[in-house]
Amino acid sequence: MYTIHVYNGKKGLCMLWAFFILFGLSLDSAIAMLNKGAQLTDLSYKKTIGYALIYTLVSFLIFSLGFGIAKVVDPYAFTVKMQSFIAVAAVLCIGVFIITKAFSRESVEEKADREFCVPTLMKMTVMTNIDTFVVGACIALYGLPYLFSGANLAAASFFTVLVPLRVGYSVGAGHQRIIGMIGGIMIIIFALYLGFLALALR
Q: Residue 127's CB: how many other CB atoms inside 10 A?
């Protein structure tokens, strides 16, 4: 099975770049939370932390599912070169999609949402983490460690839910397009770097 040791001492660098990809991915979720925070009429700090923890747990499980499926499939379905190619190409597509979505995004009406609850949050989390499933699979194909990547995803998810919810609740939803484009650009830049590293250090 392909593992990251082929990068000849570049493991730490690859993991750092993967962190930036995961952070860029989380910025897409931050927009949804910014919008939702602007619609809530009652958001205590206790509720904010609770929502952030629930979102983080669900997104981590989705990431783990993608990672686990890829780990089971890749020894039988992909060659070493194909693994890296699929991982980098898929992440690049996600970055382009996020930028396109951000560019075409229109302002959300900040009408009050008095029916928001945990089941609604969980449904929203699943819908906004489909790309997290794909990235989890890509990280497994690329050979990056599960615990490191999962921990970084969890940390990024927690803070990009906690902060946008409070900001949206306090001052409203703004700068959505910029946030989304920054996230997409980060994903593309660092995915390209990982692609270069995979080719250059074989």
A: 9
Per DSSP, the three-state class of 178 is helix
Helices and strands (H and E) in the chain: how many = 7, 0
Residues 154-187, buried b or exposed e (16+ Cβ, 10 A)?
Answer: bebbbebbbbbbbbbbeeebeebbebbbbbbbbb
Instruction: Give the tokens for residue 58.
Output: 């669900």
Q: Measuring CA to CA, which residue among 111, 125, 97 is closest to residue 33? A: 125
The Cα 72–Cα 22 span in angstroms is 22
pLDDT tens sequence for the chain (202 residues): 344 444 444 555 566 777 778 888 888 888 888 888 888 888 889 999 999 999 999 999 999 999 999 888 876 666 666 777 777 888 888 888 888 877 776 665 556 777 788 888 888 889 888 889 988 888 888 778 888 888 888 988 898 889 888 888 887 766 777 887 888 888 888 788 777 766 665 5
The answer to whether 27 touches 183, Cβ cutoff 8 Å, is yes
Do 65 and 136 touch, CB atoms closer than 8 A?
A: yes
User: 8 in helix, strand or coil?
Assistant: coil
